Amino acid sequence: MAHVNLKPNVTRVQDSSGFVGTVLYVGPVASAKSPEEIYAGISWDDVTRGKHDGSVICRSTNEIVRHFKCGPTQGSFLRLSKVDTGVPLTLELMRSRYVKPDAELIAPGNLLPHVARTSSGREKPIEFWGEVKIRSRQQLEVVADISLRMLGISRPCDVEDRSQMEEFSHLTGIDLAGNLLSNWEDVLEILRLFPNLQSASLASNRINDLGLVDIGEFTHLRALNLNNCNIGSFQTVQLLGQSMPNLEDLCLAHANLSDIQSYTFDDSGALDLKNLFQNLVLLDLSDCHLTSWETQIQPFHSLPKLESLVLNDNEIQAIIIPSGSSNEQTAFQSLASLQLAGNPISRWTALDDLNNITTLRSLRLRNTPLTEKLGVGEVRSTAIARFSNLVFFNASPISERERIEAERRYVSTVARELLLLSSEGLLSSVSKQSSNEENTDGVLGVNLKQNDVYARHPRFQDLVSKHKDSMSALTAGSGSYQGGKLGEDIINVTIRSMAVGSCDHQPLQKRLPRSLQVGRIKAMCARAFGVDVDLQILHFRVEGDPFPSELDDDDNNLAYYGVTDGAEILVNEVDVEAKEREKTREAEEHTRRIEKHEHYISIVQSAQKNDRRIGGVATDTMQK
After folding, report:
1. Considering only CA atoms, which of 106, 112, 105, 108 is closest in space to residue 127?
2. Which tens digit of pLDDT belongs to each residue from 572-586?
3. How far apart are alpha carbons 240 and 244 in whole angstroms?
4. Which of the 8 DSSP states describes residue 543?
5. Which pTM value belongs to this model?
6. Using CB atoms within 10 A as the burial measure, which of 323, 403, 429, 489 is most buried?
């Protein structure tokens, strides 16, 4: 293989075990027996695949020579004859993914070459019906979508063979994820082979950024997946928008788009997209090094059809959306779904501007400093109350009953905070009067604190008006922490045993205070169902929840988890044997990780000792 075909920092290679890496160096190696032999320096995607960090000890000078830089055990040098740069996308490769119609049947006579053993010990054959019918629907001539994942594809077929691909011009979807594609010229040439292509996945191909070139038009393309493609500039996104005007889905996860704000903005503060992405419905910008909603996300408000925006695992701390008379020009016109999981959001007030997006119906909010310090139920209940338009939260639908419960609880919580401040002000006033002193500072301080509460809870007054009948006792300014209607703190729940020994027991119908701790409920269940307290696992669910939520802390109460009126508490019993097996598996996994870590440390220490030895030899040589 001629080394001129290997482009440092571009060409992707693979080994016989399936490990993939990038060529970072092409040339002679100082430690090689033959100084004229050409090697390829590889930085593997798996940081433990290699043997060094790109440096070697020179045979002639005994000094360290660095040919490229990577992790301490990430680099390798391969002879050119050992370098596998992948295969072209050929007709034969495409056909190899599908069984030929006349190939030998897997289940001749509709019977697989396997049997199932019954509880009585008899063997029964396993039948497989419809194999021929299924096979007929999976031929390249009739399928619309084809998957070519992880086949080592690095380039299109030769020019003289491209006429053979015309018989597959009907394909509308192709998945090329996890291959060795490394430049846009090859990618675009492959896309041109399929003139009716509407969906293409290029995920996990290190194809880097587009240059300032005319790449033509792909008006038929509707969905493009570029997750983990080493894109490092928003300029590439703009160029794609110019050539693919009808894109509806665009995924750019794990790119570096931190330079968005360096591009030109128009007078309204929107990105100067020049009518680009006007049909975009879904945009995935997960882990794209974005830090500011105002300068990096808000500019996308001009996309008229954008319905779903994925911003997981960025560094966005707050949502800032202008409101007022110009809201129609600054808020997202069609945005219905927003994902913010994994961002460093620590305050509810950082999200209040989401209410300015009147079309927002779904919000995902997980793995943030805000949600980590609260219970799952409390997070959900508070989010429902604070964001008036939500229909889904963390992919779970919000029923009308759940919204009413959440809003009433929210009003109750904020009202108690205000009542507590009023009580403090009253006590301060009485104290001042008894000493014949004016209480101007105390009143002012209470007013400032109350204004701060209203600022932190902008929906409070609207919710008080909405639920004024049921919350009248609280909003009247009377009562204490237990003030208001007794029914506000008492909920009706059904406790049902799912344990093997008591699943046939009648469920309990209970009226419980929201302040009741989970540990007390477990004691109640132990008496009713005979399930040991230490072996109980409690979950709760409300109407419309697809999955129950665990009550995982005995010291927390029902209010902490957001258990609402009409909820069902499920009592499960721990499988002791399964738990022991899981402990054994975790211990073995822990031991394996320690051994792997120790092996890695020994390699690093060995390399450090070698560096010190070489340094000592070099010093002695210089002194001589």
Report:
1. 112
2. 998 877 778 888 888
3. 6
4. T
5. 0.74
6. 489
